[in-house]
Amino acid sequence: MTGISRRLLWGGVGLLFLLRLIVAVQMPLVPDEAYYWLWSRHLQWGYLDHPFMIALWIRAGTFLWGDTPFGVRFCGLMGFGLAMFWLCQASGRFFPHRRDVGLRAVLLLNVTVMAGIGLVPATPDVPLFMFLCLSLWGFSRALSVQGQAKASWGWWMLCGVSLGLAADSKYTAVLFGAGLAGFVLFGGRALWRSAGPWLGGSCALVAVLPTLIWNADHGWAGLLKQGGRASQWHPERAGQFLGELLAGQLALLTPWVAVLCCVGLWRSRREGSLLLWLVGPALLVFLLHVTGDRVQPNWVWVLYPVLVLAGAAYAGTVRGAVLTGTLCVLLVYGQCLTGFLPLSAHLNPIARLSAGWEGMAEALSAESQEKGISVMVTDDYALASILTFQKAEHVVFMGQDSRWAYLKGLTRKTVQTALYLKDLHYGPVPAGAWALWRKDGGQPVRLYSLEMRHDLSGWIVQ
């Protein structure tokens, strides 16, 4: 690859990153982001759904930029930039004899729909990915100086600390850690005989202690909630769930990139078991999970650093995958920014998740003022969170979900009369209730019902 070609490709990566920043500024917050924003108003060492890291990141971003979509997403966007750098550096260390493998890995990553749009919202996947890439970089440096015991200790410690911080972001980091431990113990290099890996493992344990302590203080609620998914058993639907998993990853990776990653992973077996060890535990867990329930598409994000490494190192030319992937990402960005495709709300996930919340909050505020009722309740934690983020006047939103019991600083309250808000999707409206549409520029997106409720208790979301 010539110097000019390399500069053009890096320029393309920079352009995609700039577009991602523009989307982050322009796209309204989605409900799950608002839920994590609410966490950031009540910082603690853990929450029912995930560990604490995303709340800490959002708190830092909103401290700098205020309670705006860009403020909520700022640290995630910067973290993704660092992740690309560390992934590039790790690629060069793992495969020093393959030219431009770091650039190829960064290109493949950036042209996936998952990175292009899935990492714009502030979710636990963003810090998870950054810390996994940092852990990979530390691991690659540790292997490169393994013959110099003391020189490798610092890199093993960096690998361990970042792996622990990844687990403080999302529990699925444990699957990556299991693969890394398996390679150290059984990968054929006798790494377990040196002190470095044990130092790294100790650092990982120390880094994850806040999450473990919070779980211990709350009856292991977070670990049980996530681990409890594995207890479901519906083998008759395994084919359906597996098909949905494969189709979802083809869409998120984009088909050509997905093929390159799979081919690269298969070819990597010829030169050692490192990449297979790193993805093995997660692949096994996901394949077992489809016997009972769906594997949500974003769960597989824990595999993406290794998958793009495999595709970049072993799968041959990436030009076609980069061109088609870039086209897919640009189409998604265009739809986010302009809505040029006249899709119905049912077929437009971007509008369904992000459009019309400010107008709906204003309509609910007016409805509340007209009825003389200052409290609205809903069973949907995400709906309560996104409406709270809008800071509507004359109304307080109250959630009835059990999640609020694990969030300190919320005041439990009983109200005599409230308006009960429910997401009806597209109808029908139950008897005794009245309807309210959330709209995107005048086009109906989602239907909600309102009705009077009495003697309700819950946790105020504010």
Automatic annotation (TrEMBL):
Q: Which InterPro entries match?
A: LipidA_mod_glycosyltrf_83, RgtA/B/C-like
Q: Which residues cross the membrane?
A: 70-89, 101-120, 173-191, 198-216, 245-266, 273-292, 298-315
* Membrane topology, from the record: Multi-pass membrane protein
Q: What is this protein called?
A: Glycosyltransferase family 39 protein
Q: Which residues form the Glycosyltransferase RgtA/B/C/D-like domain?
A: 49-214
- Record keywords: Cell membrane, Glycosyltransferase, Membrane, Transferase, Transmembrane, Transmembrane helix
Note whether Cell membrane occurs among the keywords.
yes
Going by the entry's taxonomy, the superkingdom of the source organism is recorded as Bacteria
Compartment(s): Cell membrane
Q: Which organism is it from?
A: Bombella dulcis
